[in-house]
Amino acid sequence: MSGYRVWIVEQAEQDLVELHRYVAANDSPARADDLLDKLEGLCAALAQLPLRGQVPLELERINITAYREIHFKPYRVIYQVRGRDVFVHCVVDGRRDMLSLLERRLLR
Question: What mean pLDDT is reported for the chain?
Fold first, then answer.
């Protein structure tokens, strides 16, 4: 199935900027560029198979199934499919307190 449009919402764009900045400062600019390329590619691939991800466990536990996630360990891409559009809401390090983050970002 193809033909989905992928939209990276402003907060997710900011997530990518912050991840890049962190990796560049704490590892190397080259690794930060590589990580950014891979995460952006992962998001773009949702245009082909957006339903391949699973419902985030933290949301499934509270019976919210409108969101899905895919991984590039340890990073998690949280997104929502609406019609033929895919909205990427979060690109975050999965080692964070995900329940609090998801409540702040998705359940407001």
Answer: 92
pLDDT of 1: 44
**Bridge partner residues of 7 (DSSP):** 87
Q: Is 3 left (phi over 0), alpha (psi -120 to 50) or beta?
A: left
- For the question of whether the overall pTM of this predicted structure is more than 0.85, the answer is yes
Query: Which residue ranges form the domains of the chain, and what is each CATH number?
Result: 5-106 (3.30.2310.20)
